[in-house]
């Protein structure tokens, strides 16, 4: 099976790696060679960790990497593909423009999946016109090669058989799949976790506890692998504010970003990528105690 992944960032290269580790061939597409070179290095490094941990042999890792190719040609990426997964940034117009191009080159029977954590599947699919029934949400989690869950989302026009095909693909690459049956902003996971993180932000701003103690409480009390605030720093405070602003429009004031969050964005305290967020970080991205 050929899997085309559109976008070679953290999510895109991880999804492509999942496909080749499952025995498929995969093509990662991006608009520039520099992005593809970073993606190639990231996959090589990740596969090396699997070898070091004993989960893969060196031969298995080499064979998997040999099944992965990179291209700046969208037509080459999707021509002959059985599955097309779009992992472009969370910008509606960008995703719509990309899908308009895809349907001109991808086979009519290809499964079309958009990897989004919050954008409306129906809105993205609107760009496809009569082909809207082919598009389904396939939400992988960061990092894709480690997180066990895939969330499949049915748009208003998504054909039921494509929901089933998306479920089968998620299981094929080794994930447990849940289905969001209604195209509601935030779906299952992002909606639930966004409100939890927002409550943690409010507790921090009210002086209830330090960021470290809030994160420790959530990790040890509820078995979270990362605390909501440190995960927010990893993903980007600006990304979070953008996401909950969208949820506020859909679900009301309970998702309204706090003044403190907006001030963090204005002050460029965006998390690890700027060296400061809820925590401070050194030049290597390590938390400063």
Topology record:
Blueprint: E1 2-6, H1 10-21, E2 25-29, H2 33-52, H3 58-66, E3 68-71, H4 74-78, E4 83-86, H5 92-102, E5 111-114, H6 121-125, E6 135-140, E7 149-153, H7 160-172, E8 176-180, H8 189-205, H9 211-222, H10 228-235, H11 237-251, H12 259-266, E9 280-281, E10 287-288
Parallel strand pairs: 1-2, 1-4, 2-3, 4-5, 5-6, 7-8
Antiparallel strand pairs: 6-7, 9-10
Helix pairs in contact: 1-2, 2-3
Account of the protein in words:
The protein is α/β, with parallel strands linked by helices and 289 residues long. It has two domains: 179 residues, Rossmann fold (3-Layer(aba) Sandwich), CATH 3.40.50.720; 92 residues, Orthogonal Bundle (N-(1-d-carboxylethyl)-l-norvaline Dehydrogenase, domain 2), CATH 1.10.1040.10. The chain is globular and about 55 Å long. 40% of the residues are buried.
Quickly give the structural class: alpha/beta
Strand composition percent: 5-15%
The CATH architecture classification of the largest domain is: 3-Layer(aba) Sandwich
User: What is the oligomeric state here?
Assistant: single chain
Major sheet: size, sense and barrel closure?
8 strands, mixed
CATH fourth-tier homologous superfamily of the largest domain = NAD(P)-binding Rossmann-like Domain
Domain unit count? 2
- The radius of gyration over CA amounts to 19 Å
For the largest beta sheet, what order do the strands appear in spatially? 3-2-1-4-5-6-7-8
What is the CA-CA span between the terminal residues?
Answer: 47 Å
Mean pLDDT, as a whole number?
95
Q: Give me the CATH fold name of the largest domain.
A: Rossmann fold
CATH domain class of the largest domain = Alpha Beta
Weakly predicted, low-confidence segments? none
Put simply, the count of helices is 12
- Total strands: the figure is 10
Give the overall form: globular
Portion in helices: 40-55%
The succession of helices and strands, N to C, reads EHEHHEHEHEHEEHEHHHHHEE
């Amino acid at each position: 099976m050929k899997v085309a992944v559109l976008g070679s960032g953290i999510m895109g290269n991880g999804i492509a790696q999942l496909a080749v580790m499952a025995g498929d061939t995969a093509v990662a597409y991006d608009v520039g060679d520099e992005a593809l070179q970073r993606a190639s290095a990231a996959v090589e490094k990740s596969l090396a960790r699997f070898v070091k941990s004993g989960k893969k042999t060196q031969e298995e890792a080499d064979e998997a990497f040999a099944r992965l190719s990179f291209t700046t040609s969208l037509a080459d990426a999707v021509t002959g593909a059985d599955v097309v997964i779009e992992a472009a940034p969370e910008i509606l117009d960008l995703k719509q423009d990309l899908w308009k191009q895809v349907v001109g080159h991808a086979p009519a029977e290809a499964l079309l999946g958009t990897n989004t954590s919050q954008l409306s599947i129906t809105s993205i699919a609107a760009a496809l016109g009569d082909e809207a029934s082919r598009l389904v949400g396939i939400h992988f989690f960061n990092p894709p090669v480690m997180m066990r869950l895939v969330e499949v989302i049915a748009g208003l026009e998504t054909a039921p058989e494509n929901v089933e095909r998306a479920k089968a693909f998620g299981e094929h690459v080794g994930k447990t799949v849940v289905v969001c049956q209604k195209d509601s902003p935030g779906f299952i996971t992002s909606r639930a976790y966004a409100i939890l993180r927002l409550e943690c932000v409010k507790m921090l701003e009210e002086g209830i506890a330090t960021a470290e103690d809030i994160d420790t409480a959530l990790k040890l009390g509820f078995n979270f692998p990362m605390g909501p605030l440190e995960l927010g720093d990893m993903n980007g405070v600006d990304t979070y504010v953008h996401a909950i602003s969208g949820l506020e429009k859909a679900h009301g004031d309970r998702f309204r970003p706090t003044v403190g969050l907006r001030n963090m964005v204005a002050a460029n305290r965006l998390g690890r990528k700027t060296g400061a967020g809820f925590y401070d970080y050194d030049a290597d991205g390590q938390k400063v105690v």
